[in-house]
Amino acid sequence: MLCHIITIFPEYFAGILKIGILRIAQEKKILNVALINLRDFAMDSYRTVDDYPYGGGSGMIMKPEPIFQAVESVKREDSYVILTSPQGRRFEQNLAKELSQKEHLIFICGRYKGVDERVREFLADEEISLGDFILAGGEAVCSVILEAVVRLIPGVVGDEESVATDSFVSGILDAPYYTRPADYRGYRVPEILLSGDHQKIRVWRRKEALRRTLLRRPDLLERAELTPEDIKLLKEIEEEEKNRSRKC
Ligand SMILES: C[S@@+](CC[C@H](N)C(=O)[O-])C[C@H]1O[C@@H](n2cnc3c(N)ncnc32)[C@H](O)[C@@H]1O
């Protein structure tokens, strides 16, 4: 995957591109990231990329010309142009999956009061939001999206089964996990995980994943693809939880 990031702060990405999954993906030549300093496309010697809003009001708006020119300098037939914006489609795992299948992503990182509306209307393929809150700029948004997307590209994460069982990837929340020691300050790991019985452990994990989904995110269960075994386990969980609340 080729990825261009258009930003007034290319230095923001210096650290994150050198660590973890993004570093590995680049080393494996699965990912190629190029940073574009938006100011290189400014129209004046002051490298100005923002201006006052028409109609007055507070805050500065990112000018359209440098953004259009920066995108057009790298755009190809298969490019997908993403405008980071709190008003866009909410970023979730299914969107990460969709983006992981693209050949070329171009991110536009907004700043100030926002970006001239014509960028959204006539240049971006999609506006993506990280959630209902306001950040100072699109750089953090871009780094989050990139990390979530890149770990889904086949070959990036060595253990693909681990990715497949992650929360949301499998349609439900992931199971609880424990590691050594088996007893820490008297807090014991569930016995079944020490039993060595892989079939029982698989069923236990699935059941606990379903339990926490039912208790924390029941909305996910409405959309999840459940097997007959899942439905049986859910019935057991509902019964167990009813008994538990009766005892309290
Ligand atoms: C201060 S924000 C502008 C917010 C804009 N005035 C609004 O209320 O919709 C500046 C830039 O940060 C980015 N940004 C801030 N919060 C975001 C979020 N939740 N999701 C995606 N991008 C965000 C966008 O690129 C945005 O153009």
Automatic annotation (TrEMBL):
A single GO molecular function term of this UniProt record: tRNA (guanine(37)-N1)-methyltransferase activity
Where in the numbering of this chain does the tRNA methyltransferase TRMD/TRM10-type domain appear? 2-222
Which residues are noted in the entry as S-adenosyl-L-methionine-binding?
A: 110, 130-135
Q: What keywords would UniProt list here?
A: Cytoplasm, Methyltransferase, S-adenosyl-L-methionine, Transferase, tRNA processing
Catalytic activity entry: guanosine(37) in tRNA + S-adenosyl-L-methionine = N(1)-methylguanosine(37) in tRNA + S-adenosyl-L-homocysteine + H(+)
Q: Where in the cell is it found?
A: Cytoplasm
Q: Which InterPro entries did the record assign?
A: Alpha/beta_knot_MTases, tRNA_m1G_MeTrfase_C_sf, tRNA_m1G_MeTrfase_TrmD, tRNA_m1G_MTases_N, tRNA_MeTrfase_TRMD/TRM10
Q: What is its EC number?
A: 2.1.1.228
Per the record, what is one GO cellular component?
cytosol
Per the UniProt entry, what are the Gene Ontology biological process annotations, in alphabetical order?
A: tRNA N1-guanine methylation
Q: What is its main location?
A: cytoplasm
Family according to the record: Belongs to the RNA methyltransferase TrmD family.
Assembly and partners are described as: Homodimer.
- HAMAP family for the chain: TrmD
**Functional summary from the UniProt entry:** Specifically methylates guanosine-37 in various tRNAs.
Q: What is this protein called?
A: tRNA (guanine-N(1)-)-methyltransferase
Organism, scientific name: candidate division WOR-3 bacterium
- Encoding gene, per UniProt annotation: trmD
